[in-house]
Amino acid sequence: MLFIHKNGKFYFKYILLALVAMALYILFYIVSKTYLKFDIPDINNNLQENNIKTGQIGKANACFMILSENSRLEGVKSTMRQIEDRFNHKYNYPYIFLNDVPFTQEFINFTKAMTKAKTKYGLVSKEHWSFPNYINIELVNKNIQEMANNRIPFGSSLSYRHMCR
């Protein structure tokens, strides 16, 4: 027999539990279809109205911040060309250039000529560009020399170390 245990006892508690679970499921289904109607905005209409395929509506409040030395102009030009060709020519996000020394006029002229977007140039203060007082300068110099000996890229560049901090 289907609902009889091998000792002859009925499985009433299991049958009752299954019926209660089924009743709760049916009740939840009816309530969710009748009373719980969620008002989900149609994102596709918003995207079509704004002619944006990425899912973002509007332009982000952002900029490109580039920390560079004057001597890295060729690398900056290459980077900006890629950004402008692939993306920023459509959106014109501004560029902010930072350095520990004033930018040369050559750097400013070339970077301004690379984009239609606004460009700004700033200085990083000495207190933010140099080592704090509690740093052991002898140990720093020893490690920089070791990195240079091991041919680690920019290993001998103290300026690069400050920039990465």
Automatic annotation (TrEMBL):
GO terms for cellular component: Golgi apparatus; membrane. The keyword Membrane applies. InterPro entries: Glyco_trans_15 (IPR002685), Nucleotide-diphossugar_trans (IPR029044). It comes from the Eukaryota. GO terms for molecular function: alpha-1,2-mannosyltransferase activity. Keywords: Membrane, Transferase, Transmembrane, Transmembrane helix. The chain crosses the membrane at residues 12-31. Pfam families: Glyco_transf_15. One of its GO terms (biological process) is protein N-linked glycosylation. Belongs to the glycosyltransferase 15 family. PANTHER family: ALPHA-1,2 MANNOSYLTRANSFERASE KTR1. This is Glycosyltransferase Family 15 protein. It comes from Gigaspora rosea.
